[in-house]
């Protein structure tokens, strides 16, 4: 599924639109994401930190879990943006845990990850590029099929 330029710009706009909701009092590193479903819907998310640290959630997973909890599981792309304590925007690659969650729901050869500094300054990567040889549901399916043969 080729991502149209207008949709890419829309995802970048939507991600920046929710950056103000990022709850990052500890790291002061705000992250926001806009997730596009294959049916054309957009789910946004932000990072949500916690005084006990480990319960915190990344922006990408917030967006993915919002979508899954509303019945959406087929995703085409996600845009990630960030703002540091000085107000600077840089490319923000997804953490390893978020890459693994993407692997659960997305085709690594098709799912596009956009890292944007602004609407005209971005990078686009496939999940397969950011998580080579990823372990996903397909690996367990092979296992189950093999078990059935035995
Ligand atoms: N963060 C994200 O939201 N997404 C990422 O992929 C990288 C890290 C958040 C987690 C934490 O709230 C803050 O950025 C600093 O690590």
From TrEMBL:
One of its GO terms (molecular function) is cytidine deaminase activity. It is an enzyme of class 3 (hydrolase). GO terms for cellular component: cytosol. It holds the Pfam family dCMP_cyt_deam_1. It comes from the Bacteria. Its cofactor is Zn(2+). One of its GO terms (biological process) is pyrimidine-containing compound metabolic process. It catalyses: cytidine + H2O + H(+) = uridine + NH4(+); 2'-deoxycytidine + H2O + H(+) = 2'-deoxyuridine + NH4(+). PANTHER family: CYTIDINE DEAMINASE. This enzyme scavenges exogenous and endogenous cytidine and 2'-deoxycytidine for UMP synthesis. This is Cytidine deaminase. It comes from Clostridium scindens (strain ATCC 35704 / DSM 5676 / VPI 13733 / 19). The gene is cdd.
